[in-house]
């Protein structure tokens, strides 16, 4: 084997120097003072070996990737026949790849909320150049823009905005990232309950008006004391007992904003209604006194009567006369100011109206001759009382009577009949 120790080691220029871990690298070689065959060996990096031809002098080696972050020595050897006569080497330093991170706690927000963006630059070769491009209104960039910084924001107006930041290292690697931000008007709510105050058993309409906020907005009602809930913005809730309650409405939007409104609700006892009549058995045409009595409810109260024969009234105390005999139901409704209602009824029996006819067996008679009188009754409600009035000649108190006149001339005889309900009818007959 022939050695040539006097020959100088080959020199080479490589088109890679400081670079970043994980990136493909294109190696370019220029062997100086030699036109012989050169071999390129990648030392500890994935055992890559590539032969650089003797011609031309300038050769490009395909891309190769490093397997870890460390320093590597690149050898270039001059090969002659079956032995190596000279070699040269360079050491290349690897760096982690440049990384740029932009983060914040939320991508949606409401006007008036505060949030912070965090910017961090790692890897590559520092120092870094960090540039903030666009950013939402209300954000303040610190003057010292190094590898890590925080940008504080208090958002003054709604809209859709971009936060853009770019970073460049000393190797010339540049990265840029951006985050969108949607700012909604501030969340606002109002709440109401109707009717309020109310009464037991009456549905209360709970309603809330929600404006602004970042959608979706979650809302619910809670009733206390008790465990009543309503998982909606509006709906009906029925209280089952009296007392003072608090209805609480809460809305929370996607930006984490929460608004709470409370409504105090007073609940009174429900209406209890009773209907009475001063008499439940009458003759047709007689007046009946009706009274509706209530407890509970929320003043003022309203009343409505229907007597069953087409007659009506709108006061709690009233009167009515039935003109046709029969059985009737007088019905009364009462409503309070919270729309609570109750109904009651009273039954009435109506007999035909009392009528009386006085009769005599003769209408012309002589002195001292007896006359037979009788009264015929229809309708009314027995028992009955009778009173025959014969003028100055006397009277009788039975259904039939016998009387003799002792004076000459025309005589008027009257029959008055009263029934057990106080109805009174009179009938007269002339006797010559």
From TrEMBL:
Pfam (any one): PKD_4
Membrane topology: Multi-pass membrane protein
Keyword Coiled coil: no
GO molecular function terms attached to this record: monoatomic cation channel activity
Keyword Transmembrane helix among UniProt keywords: yes
Record-linked Gene3D superfamilies: Immunoglobulins
Biological processes annotated in GO: calcium ion transport
Keyword line: Membrane, Repeat, Transmembrane, Transmembrane helix
Domain PKD: 187-272, 284-357, 371-432
One GO CC term, this protein: plasma membrane
InterPro entries, A to Z: Ig-like_fold, PKD/Chitinase_dom, PKD_dom, PKD_dom_sf
PROSITE patterns recorded: PKD
Compartments it resides in: Membrane
Name this protein carries in UniProt: Thermopsin
Native source species: mine drainage metagenome
Taxon lineage: unclassified sequences, metagenomes, ecological metagenomes
């Amino acid at each position: 084997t022939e050695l040539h120790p006097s020959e100088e080691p080959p020199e080479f220029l490589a088109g890679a120097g400081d670079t970043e871990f994980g990136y493909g690298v294109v190696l370019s070689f220029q062997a100086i003072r030699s036109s012989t065959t050169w071999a390129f060996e990648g030392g500890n990096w994935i055992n890559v070996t590539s032969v650089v031809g003797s011609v031309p002098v300038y050769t490009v080696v395909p891309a190769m990737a490093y397997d870890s972050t460390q320093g590597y020595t690149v050898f270039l050897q001059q090969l002659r026949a079956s032995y190596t006569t000279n070699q040269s080497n360079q050491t290349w330093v690897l760096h982690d790849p440049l990384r740029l991170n932009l983060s914040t706690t939320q991508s949606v927000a409401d006007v008036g909320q505060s949030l912070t963006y965090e910017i961090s630059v790692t890897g590559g070769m520092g120092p870094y150049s960090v540039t903030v491009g666009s950013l939402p209104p209300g954000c303040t960039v610190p003057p010292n823009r190094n590898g890590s910084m925080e940008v504080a924001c208090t958002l003054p107006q709604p809209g859709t905005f971009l936060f853009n930041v770019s970073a460049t290292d000393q190797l010339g690697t540049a990265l840029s990232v951006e985050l969108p931000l949607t700012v909604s008007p501030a969340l606002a709510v109002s709440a109401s309950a109707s009717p309020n105050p109310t009464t037991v058993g009456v549905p209360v309409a709970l309603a809330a008006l929600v404006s602004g906020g970042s959608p979706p907005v979650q809302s619910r009602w809670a009733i206390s004391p008790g465990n009543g809930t309503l998982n909606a913005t509006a709906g009906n809730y029925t209280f089952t007992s009296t007392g003072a309650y608090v209805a609480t409405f809460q809305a929370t939007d996607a930006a984490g904003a929460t608004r709470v409104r409370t409504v105090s609700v007073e609940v009174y006892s429900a209406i209890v209604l009773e209907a009475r009549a001063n008499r439940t058995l009458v003759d047709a045409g007689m007046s009946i006194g009706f009274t509706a009595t209530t407890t509970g409810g929320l003043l003022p109260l309203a009343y409505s009567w229907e007597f069953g024969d087409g007659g009506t009234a709108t006061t709690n105390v009233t009167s009515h006369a039935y003109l046709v005999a029969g059985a009737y139901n007088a019905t009364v409704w009462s409503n309070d100011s919270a729309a609570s209602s109750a109904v009651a009824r009273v039954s009435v029996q109506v007999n035909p109206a009392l009528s009386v006819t006085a009769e005599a067996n003769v209408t012309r008679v002589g002195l001292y001759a007896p006359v037979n009188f009788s009264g015929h009754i229809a309708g009314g409600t027995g028992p009955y009382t009778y009173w025959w009035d014969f003028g100055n000649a006397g009277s009788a108190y039975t259904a039939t009577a016998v009387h003799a006149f002792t004076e000459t001339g025309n005589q008027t005889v009257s029959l008055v009949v009263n029934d057990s309900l106080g109805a009174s009818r009179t009938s007269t007959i002339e006797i010559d």
